[in-house]
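Journal club side-thread
Mid-discussion, someone asked how the predicted structure for our own chain would compare to the paper's figures. Pasting it here so we can look after the session.
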Amino acid sequence: MKAIQIVGRKKSGKTSLVVRLLPLLRAHGLRLATVKHSGHPHALDREGSDSWLHRQAGAEATLAVTAAAVSFHFDIPETEDRTQALVERYLGEHDLVLIEGWAGRAGAKIEVVPAGKDGRAKMPRFLDGGELLAVVLAPGLRPSPEDVAPWGELQPAGAWAPAAAGSALTDAAGAKAAPDAGGAKAAPDAGGGGPIGAGPARRSAGAPVPCFLWEDAVAVARFILDRHES
């Protein structure tokens, strides 16, 4: 099983991207699971419900079963490592887990980059460290080469790649960006999702970070599939 985190600033479009990717990935036969991580102490059970009363009385975990669905509630573990161990235990049979958020977790990441107040794409937050596998621009964003030049390793991919766009996008040094960036299957060391609970999946040193347009979800799904199979 592998996991990829969809990260980004608040309201950047993380949930929308996860929802767009799920049917595309499932069409390829993968068994999928998702994790929604929030740093806020939201109550996930209704105070006064039977399952809530069970936990208040001392149950560490409660399974609520109806004719339509099953709900599993735990008290929050003392450490994030234990939370991650729970995810591994109960989602381990799935082929791929998409984790929305949980930016502090070590692992492969795809970052959704929103527009700033000036209408330009904000600087990605996860370029350093080798965990960022790709960037997806928020709807309507199509930065110029000058806008992305400070991002260093980022490279247009999918429909935004020079061959597809029919334009001569260049990198900071003035050289044309590789037309197949993000389209070809990655080398084995380019970074996969990585098993949950294992060390972080990392991008090879100096490897480009493919950047996809929002409307190019099919290319993003293909990118994920390539790394899942590598």
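Post-session note: Residues 163-200 have pLDDT under 50 and may be disordered.
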